[in-house]
Amino acid sequence: MNHKPVLAALALALSATAMPAFADAAPDPLSFNVSLTTDYRYRGISQTRLKPALQGGADYAAPNGFYIGTWASTIKWIKDGGGDAPVELDVYAGYKTELAKDLALDVGVLQYYYNKNKLNPSANTLEVYGALTAGPITAKLSLSTSNLFGFADSKNSAYLDISGNFDLGDGMTLTPHVGHQSVRHGKAYSYTDYGLTLAKDVGNGVVISGAVIGTDTDAYVGPSSKNLGKAGLVLAVKKSF
Asked: Using one digit for the tens of pLDDT, what is the confidence trace for 186-236?
């Protein structure tokens, strides 16, 4: 955001007397983010044929715990499957609350949308989810209320994952993760994924990260017989503002 010189000068002049008020001010409920990653992995499976992706989103978090947001990423898997949708758009809403000290609940609904994806069944997917966080550990269950990403007769497919978020100090965090995707009436496509992410907050809303991500399946194969779930290193940079 650009400020006119007169406004900048006024803010500087007021800062000496207004600092306590700024320190106590509530955080802005509206936030934005943009990121670049060497591979968009979702639940361990590459959505971009093991290629880079551009991503971004916006979130609004109300003081009472309700939130709403949207997020988008470039993708390749719809076209690889015979459809025509170069972008994934997610829209979600939910509610977070603290049940007790170091114990929080998060419940919500998430719509994955692929404009004119032309797949049959459609790749568009609706999920409801619930997550429980105890200290640094979060367990989350997501349940599809529609067919799951184009799999026929896959309503009520479930994804269960457990992750940690450990503060290493100096702006660094370590995030281990393991999850299991169960595809209803599609046992051959059910699998387990895992990941370990090291992230560094370098200031000004910028976070850089490196993650080792993989799965135990070779059922998801892209062009040139590439295993889209093979273990690999994913690098990313994200800017929040």
From this structure: 999 999 999 999 999 999 999 999 999 999 999 999 988 999 999 999 999
Taking the model in full, what pTM does it have?
Answer: 0.88
Question: What would the pLDDT profile of 151-192 be if each residue is shown by its tens digit?
Answer: 999 999 999 999 999 999 999 999 999 999 999 999 999 999
Q: pLDDT tier at 5 (50, 70, 90 boundaries)? A: very low
Whole-number Å distance between alpha carbons of 92 and 111: 6
104 forms beta bridges with: 98, 133
Angle at 167 between CA 161 and CA 171, to 5 degrees: 120
Q: What is the CATH number of the domain that holds 130?
A: 2.40.160.40
State which H helix or E strand residue 15 sits in.
helix 5-24
Unique residue bearing structure tokens 């983010």: 33
d(CA 69, CA 76): 23
Q: Give the integer Cα–Cα distance in Å for 164 and 174.
A: 8
Q: How far is CA 198 from the centre of its chain?
A: 16
The domain containing residue 218 runs over which residues? 29-240
**Sign, Cα dihedral of 221, 82, 142, 43:** positive
155 within a domain of the structure (yes/no): yes
